[in-house]
Amino acid sequence: MGTMLEFKDVNFFYQTKKAEIHALKDLNFEVDEEEFASIVGPSGCGKTTILSLIAGLLEKSSGKILLCEKEIEKNDSRIGYMFQRDHLFEWRNIWQNVTLGIELSKPKNADEKKEFAKELLKKYDLYEFISTKPRSLSGGMRQRVALIRTLVMEPALLLLDEPFSALDFQTRLKVCDDVHEIIKSEKKTAILVTHDISEALSMSDKVIVLSSRPASVKHVEKLKLNGETPLKRREDTNFGALFDLIWKKLTNEETNK
Fold first, then answer.
1. 52, 72, 237, 239: which one has the fewest Cβ atoms less than 10 Å from its Cβ?
2. Which CATH number, 3.30.420.40, 3.40.50.300, 3.90.550.10, 3.40.50.1370, labels domain 14-89+156-251?
3. CA distance 105 to 110
4. Helix (H, G, I), strand (E, B) or coil at 217
5. pLDDT tens for residues 164-183?
6. Of residues 61, 54, 233, 75, the one with CA closest to residue 161
7. pTM of this prediction?
8. What three-state secondary structure class fits 111?
9. What are the backbone dihedrals phi and psi of residue 226, each rounded to the nearest 5 degrees, phi first?
């Protein structure tokens, strides 16, 4: 499998009333096809900014961002974005929420996409709720609906911006398993931004550690943890040592590992 996403010497500046802020400095990393990568870093270092650049919501100051060897475009349709909140519309039922992208973009293959939406809802045990309003669903089910809504548009790359942060811990663990299963089953490439090191380790094939602002890549850790689900991977005997390694990289502690 080849490279899906590539950052090449990417810099990003933004202007405040007082000064020009250098947010990202010579940022370089790659994400391969069907790889699940997580980005961790100090608060305020620019993790969400990176996702906004990938999605074409912000324009880089210099460098290149390549998706399938082509430059990212503004509001790039090849990108699917899952936010911190599920952003389901309470006045629309589940089917109307899931097919919202089809309704707005009016693609030529709209009927095919609607059939695909039905298949996904059936596959992930949500079809019986298509006439239900979001308020009737649990937090975990809502996140699965939000993910399916994104997948219906068949993006090449999924961006996950702390999508579990609003959930309680127990629900969060279950939803991590659900989302991971769906992404792997659908053979999607994904990038997760999170403050939670354990979450990053349990879900990912690779963890990218950023420095403080201006952010650059400080460390990349490829993972080979045992377990088919994020919850099971937390039980791997190497999990604790990997957590300590990433923590030390984040906090600038010396490590010989």
1. 237
2. 3.40.50.300
3. 9
4. strand
5. 887 888 888 988 998 899 89
6. 54
7. 0.89
8. helix
9. -80, 145
